[in-house]
Design goal:
The complex is a heterotrimer of chains A (637), B (248) and C (226). Chain A has 637 residues and is of the alpha+beta class. Helix content of chain A is 38%, strand content 15%. Chain A has 17 helices and 21 strands. In chain A, helix 3 runs parallel beside helix 6, helix 3 packs parallel to helix 12 and helix 10 packs antiparallel against helix 11. Chain A is globular and about 75 Å long. The relative contact order of chain A is 0.16. Chain B contains nine helices and seven strands; from the N terminus they run E-E-H-E-E-E-E-E-H-H-H-H-H-H-H-H. Chain C is mainly α and 226 residues long. Helix content of chain C is 77%, strand content 0%. The chains are: A alpha+beta (637), B alpha+beta (248), C mainly alpha (226). At the A-B interface, helix 3, helix 5, helix 6, helix 11 and helix 12 of A face helix 1, helix 2 and helix 3 of B. Bound molecules: flavin-adenine dinucleotide, protoporphyrin IX containing FE (2 copies), iron/sulfur cluster, FE3-S4 cluster (F3S) and FE2/S2 (inorganic) cluster. One protoporphyrin IX containing FE (HEM) binds next to helix 2, helix 3, helix 4, helix 6 and helix 8 of chain C.
Chain lengths: 637, 248, 226
């Protein structure tokens, strides 16, 4: 396997411009002859599908939800970054670029990140034109706020529903093209296999989730925009349907998986309330703009009513440790700090897994009305879930898995190691390194879809492309059989345990051993447990019903089966990366509790090649070279 | 607490369904409604019975996947709350809860509590957008939008497309959903260019899909988890009148 | 133009324009009709003069009658069409239905309306055409005019007839208590700022019309008017 990132030559700031004008154009008459498959309708998928259809391509789009509008991007609350410098506070493309690289703890690819910062400004323009109702100031200008780990105000937002509004904008653009007939939409369809013909991605096998039928879809190129794999942890802030299936099956067909161990833990989530817990709810990070994190200084105070604990007995640990960023320290740092104080036995709430996020000071300063105006919907949500009124009692929060920086390896053109297979959005690995800054996933998804792939797809289509096969090609028949066999096998086991119980158990292993803090011994333990659990799954899972109709258990079983294979790769990657960086915290490597990178040994992207289930995957390295910037120790003190 | 559930079971679109009784013996008040159903389903699977099918995804009240008519109310008894955000502390030990799918001709049942809401997508596809092809956009601040208009557009844009408005309405009318989109877009200067064509096309599709008309009964607004106001329905009617006068 | 007409006649919103406009027209007529009636309290002469003036309008009278008839016909056609479509939109009823928020009046418009249609037919036969009680209808006052006043007193001295009219008017106002606020919205004349006002207007006008109409039979029954 060859990893060629295909980074254009020339100075960093002009690479993208040059590359764009160098890409051979696809003849407009030919565009109509190309069929493009887009799997996923989140920000990345919807925006890509709409833009490609606008260019004249025939596009087939797939999502497992009942409507493309429900993709998980809908849940993003906080905002989207763009280097507009509307606030005149010193922002620039370069600064956004640098912040993102630094935020990613110097493990992202420089050229991609610079391009991301460049097109960030176009995204806002595009979204405004589509009618995204961003917050405005009284004068009618767009409003900005500062967001997780940034000292400039560059985050655009639409109440607490930025992801929803951006997705609805992209979804409407997509629906427009559906109405015009240039996009064929397949909702309630799940991609099960990627079809390769002569080594090129030429189609997919999808299951119609309503009828249960397997369908073959041929195309000239395939775009995976299927989001992240955070649900391997079972409990995460991801939607219940988020999965690794599309990525994993593509990986098994030869696409390299990069940096799977880079997972992000978000500091401000509502803590677990009991065994029934099915997911965790994120409270927007913007809460940290006005809320202060603390725990009691003394363990004995943990059970007390927080309002009875004297100011002097409170430890505002973020303000103490990071005086300049304080409560706004980046996510990985804030999460780890919370874990530390809880590990010290100073956590609050059920199981001692929680810290306070206290608004009382700001409520005193600004008045409750102002706080209500800013965060009313979040406080309401908190009350619905916990039954507590956070205007009176401090919120309790705890970190939870939130985002996965790893994903399929792609080159500068967003093409994976399989020719013709492109990967966009959270599903690829390229822009966030070892940690993602707040408000930059939305930016990346839309950058990929609106402004990168419409150009870079041309590189493949005008290159050594293979003709589109018919859907009767033996490769399709074979892939369909593969998918069918797997489904039949799942249905035939009829064991004693539910799919959910396996998922929960897997999640616990991965969270305990490969979550916020990872150790050599713990990871090895996980590597022993996961295959055993997988074996038990294939002998003892009970999937009720048939494959010939709507069967949610069968869908779920397929996803959990893939998580059980993928988890091993995730842990393997974490074990091999014997350093701490960003969200990957190896407890062996720390300096005063901070992540300690090892740039001499690990300044590379780990791209794994599949070698068979249960076989050690093969590591390929893409060295990270920085032309513009120097690697530094990240400091937010 | 212990609850009795009356759940609509229907194997597929063609077969007639019925209410079936289940007991949920050990419900914690901290569970969400869907977590309670998860637990019931685990029990059913254990007994070799088919679990209850229901739509859900984000479980955060934003994707609009979850539905359910709970005791005759879409998304259940709590105001401004989706089913996935409804928590069991709103119920009492010993309660009997009836759970049905959203019912409307344009929302055929797929299985049990899962219905097909793709009619909403077709309404959007017929005109619920601003034609702004990628590449042509001027600077985001080139066209100013008053905060009042932007806020009001946002009020309308909060719709999550869940279909509770249709489920609640005695006429199974999609007026609240359709009007929210029409209002969101026509409140913004960017959206005014196409306003007449948009409202004519969307209303046409809404009717053609088989939704009923609006009798201004306000059930939709009361059931809407996002509190979308029926005043947007008046705005849609106004837009429609305007379109008839200028472009009809 | 044909586009406009076919859209008005076929779309749910267009039909509501028809229902709303005719509803508004009938509402206006009813209001005036009720105010006219209050002249019963001014004595037979005043009232009969009023009636004679109306009768004497000639062509204008027939124009108004034609208009009223057309409004009723359109309103009934529009609402019946809509009701059929609305019912078809929910072929399978809920097993348990809480009728979220919707007022009783708003849910029963078609029944109160259809009853009103019957009432109007009877009422025309009664007072305008004189078919039901030709004896009352034949009365003349000293000036040789049609003695509407005396006819009415005669009619409402029958408690049964009074009761029937009172029930009818009650239903009318029930219909209007929802209808009047509804028509503003149907015609697009509502915004959050005016919402409360419009709803209050509907309630107040419905009650006023009720009290105005009912005052006459009540006054006759208790002997204030004789
Ligand atoms: C609670 C929450 C809050 C967030 N807040 C922010 C924020 O404020 N700012 C920010 O920048 N980022 C935020 N993020 C991150 C951001 O929302 C996501 O990273 C981003 O939206 C991912 O977009 P996507 O298009 O890559 O994938 P998704 O939106 O996850 O879409 C995946 C799509 O793939 C489809 N799919 C998946 N598998 C298959 C399959 N096998 N077959 C067919 N279809 C499939 C799904 O149907 C779906 O349409 C947040 C994330 C969460 C969880
Ligand atoms: C004659 C028989 C009548 C019938 C069958 C009838 C029926 C109805 C129905 C079903 C509606 C609700 C329509 C909907 O919202 O979809 C309605 C609305 C209305 N009706 Fe009637 N009605 C009748 C007579 C009247 C009369 C006599 C009046 C007035 C004096 C009247 C005034 C109204 C008004 C104002 C509305 C509201 C219109 C709107 O929502 O825009 N109706 N009618
Ligand atoms: C107590 C209540 C009512 C009384 C006493 C009453 C009385 C009368 C009388 C006396 C006439 C005949 C007038 C004339 O021939 O000069 C008349 C006509 C009429 N009334 Fe009423 N009325 C009442 C309620 C109503 C109501 C509720 C309606 C319907 C909304 C209505 C609709 C009409 C109509 C349409 C006519 C015919 C007008 C015409 O001649 O063109 N009335 N009414
Ligand atoms: S208007 Fe409200 S109830 Fe209707 S679809 Fe939108 S959010 Fe759901
Ligand atoms: S409930 Fe139905 S009648 Fe109109 S106001 Fe809402 S659509
Ligand atoms: S599951 Fe997404 S809104 Fe309820």
């Amino acid at each position: 396997m060859q990893l060629d990132a295909k980074i254009p030559s020339g100075p960093l700031a002009s690479k993208w411009d040059r590359h764009r004008s160098d890409i051979k154009l696809v003849n407009p008459a030919n565009k109509r002859k190309f069929e493009i498959i887009v799997v996923g309708t989140g920000l990345a998928g919807s925006s890509a599908a709409a833009s490609l259809a606008e260019l004249g391509y025939n596009v087939k789009v797939f999502c497992f939800q009942d409507s493309p509008r429900r993709a998980h991007s809908i849940a993003a609350q906080g905002g989207i970054n763009a280097a507009k410098n509307y606030k005149n506070d010193g922002d620039s493309v370069h600064r956004l670029f640098y912040d993102t690289i630094k935020g990613g703890d110097f493990r992202a690819r420089e050229a991609n990140v610079h391009r991301l910062a460049e097109v960030s400004v176009n995204i806002i323009d595009q979204a405004v034109s589509q009618g995204v109702p961003f917050a405005r100031e009284y004068g009618g200008y767009l409003d900005n706020r500062s967001f997780g780990g940034s000292l400039v105000s560059r985050t655009f937002y639409a109440r607490g529903q930025t992801g929803q509004q951006l997705l609805i904008g992209a979804y409407q653009a997509l629906e427009r093209m559906i109405g015009q007939g240039s996009v064929q939409m397949h909702s309630r369809h799940e991609m099960l296999e990627l079809v390769l013909v002569n080594g090129h991605a030429k189609g997919i096998i999808a299951r119609d989730l309503v009828t249960g039928r397997l369908e073959r879809h041929a195309a000239d190129a395939v775009l995976l925009c299927t989001g992240g794999y955070g649900n391997v942890f079972f409990l995460s802030t991801n939607a219940k349907g988020c999965n690794v299936t599309a990525l994993w099956r593509a990986h098994k067909m030869g696409a390299a998986f990069a940096n799977p161990c880079y997972t992000q833990i978000h500091p401000t989530c509502i803590p677990v309330s009991g065994d029934h817990q099915s997911k965790l709810t994120l409270m927007s990070e913007s809460l940290r703009n006005d809320g202060r994190c603390w725990v009691p200084k003394n363990k004995e105070d943990c059970g007390k009513d927080p309002r009875q604990i004297a100011e002097a007995d409170r430890d505002y640990y973020l303000e103490r440790k990071y005086p300049s960023y304080g409560n706004l320290a980046p996510r990985d740092i804030a999460s780890r700090a919370a874990k530390q104080v809880c590990d010290e036995g100073r956590g609050v709430g059920p199981g001692g897994l929680g810290v306070y996020l206290d608004f009382s000071k700001r409520i005193q300063e600004l008045g409750e009305a102002k706080i209500r105006e800013r965060y009313g919907n979040l406080f309401d949500m908190y009350e619905r879930i916990t039954g507590e009124n956070a205007y009176q009692v401090p919120m309790r929060i705890y970190p939870a898995v939130h985002y996965t920086m790893g994903g399929l390896w792609v080159d500068y053109n967003l093409m994976s190691t399989i020719p013709g297979l492109h990967v966009l959005g959270e599903a690829n690995f390229s822009d966030h390194g070892a940690n993602r800054l707040g408000a930059s996933a939305l930016m990346q998804g839309l950058a990929d879809g609106y402004f990168v792939i419409p150009y870079t797809l041309g590189v493949y289509l005008t290159g050594a492309i293979q003709a589109r096969p018919s859907a009767d090609h033996p490769a399709f028949i074979e892939a369909e059989k593969l998918a069918q066999d797997k489904l039949s096998r799942l249905l035939s086991i009829k064991g004693k345990r539910t799919v959910l119980s396996f998922h929960r158990e897997l999640g616990k292993v991965v969270w305990d051993k490969c979550g916020m803090g990872r150790t050599d011994a713990g990871l090895k333990e996980a590597l022993a447990k996961i295959p055993a659990l997988r074996e038990e799954f294939w002998e003892n899972v009970n999937v009720i019903g048939s494959g010939g109709d709507f069967n949610q258990q069968l869908e779920y079983a397929g996803r959990v089966a893939d998580f059980l294979e993928f988890a091993e790769l995730l842990v393997t990657d974490a074990l091999h990366r014997d350093e701490s960086c960003g969200g990957h915290f190896r407890e062996e490597h720390q300096e005063e509790g901070e992540a300690k990178r090892d740039d001499d040994k690990f300044a590379y992207v780990a791209a794994w090649e599949f070698a068979g289930i249960g076989k050690p995957p093969i590591l390929h390295k893409e060295e990270l070279t920085y032309e513009e910037i120097k690697m530094q120790t990240r400091s937010y003190k | 607490m212990k609850l009795t559930l009356q759940v609509w079971r229907q194997p597929n679109r063609e077969t007639q369904g019925k209410l079936v009784e289940y007991v949920a013996p050990d419900v914690s008040p901290d569970m969400s409604f869907l977590e309670m159903l998860d637990v019931v389903n685990e029990g059913l699977i254990g007994k070799g019975e088919e679990p209850i099918a229901f739509d859900h995804d984000c479980r955060e009240g934003i994707c609009g996947s979850c539905s359910l008519q709970i005791d005759g109310k879409p998304h259940g008894p709590e105001k401004m709350t989706t089913t996935c955000q409804l928590h069991m502390r709103k119920f009492k030990d010993g309660d009997t809860i009836t759970i049905e799918p959203f019912r409307a001709k344009p929302f055929p049942v797929i299985k049990d509590l899962v219905v097909d809401r793709s009619a909403f997508d077709r309404i959007i596809a017929s005109g619920g957008f601003i034609s702004a092809p990628v590449g042509a956009a001027p600077d985001g601040n080139a066209i100013l939008v008053s905060k009042i208009d932007a806020d009001r557009a946002m009020d309308a844009a909060e719709c999550i497309g869940c279909g509770a408005c249709v489920a609640a309405c005695k006429n199974a009318s999609a007026s609240l959903f359709t009007s929210a989109k029409i209002s969101h877009l026509s409140l913004l200067p960017q959206g005014r260019v196409e306003r007449e064509a948009r409202v004519l096309a969307m209303v046409n599709t809404m009717d053609a899909e088989g939704f009923g008309g609006c009798s201004n009964t306000n059930s939709c607004e009361a059931a809407c988890p996002k509190g979308i106001s029926v005043s947007f329905i008046a705005q849609m009617n106004r837009e429609y009148l305007r379109a008839l006068v200028t472009k009809g | 133009m044909t586009g406009v007409i076919s859209r008005v006649l076929s779309s749910t919103i267009g039909l509501k324009f028809i229902v709303g406009i005719t509803g508004a027209g009938m509402f206006a007529f009813t209001l005036v009709h009720m105010l006219g009636h209050l002249q019963m309290f001014a004595g037979p002469d005043a009232y009969n003069t009023y009636a004679a003036t109306l009768q004497g309008l000639g062509a204008l009278k027939w124009l108004a009658r034609a208009g009223l008839l057309a409004m009723i016909a359109l309103h009934v056609w529009g609402t019946v069409t809509l009701t059929a479509r609305n019912r078809a939109a929910r072929p399978e009823a809920y097993q348990k239905d809480r009728k979220v928020e919707a007022s009783l009046a708003s849910r029963t418009m078609i029944y109160s309306g259809l009853f009103l249609a019957c009432f109007v037919l009877f009422h025309l036969a009664h007072f305008t055409l004189g078919w039901t009680h030709p004896d009352e209808f034949a009365l003349q006052d000293q000036l040789g005019r049609h003695d509407v006043y005396a006819g009415m007193v005669l009619a409402f001295q029958s408690p049964l007839m009074s009761l029937f009219y009172m029930v009818a008017v009650a239903l009318l106002c029930f219909h209007l208590s929802h209808g009047v606020s509804s028509l503003f919205r149907s015609l697009g004349l509502m915004s959050p700022r005016f919402r409360k006002l419009e709803e209050q207007f509907a309630i107040v006008s419905a009650w006023s019309i009720f009290l105005g109409f009912v005052s006459v039979p009540v006054a006759i029954l208790v002997g204030v008017i004789r």
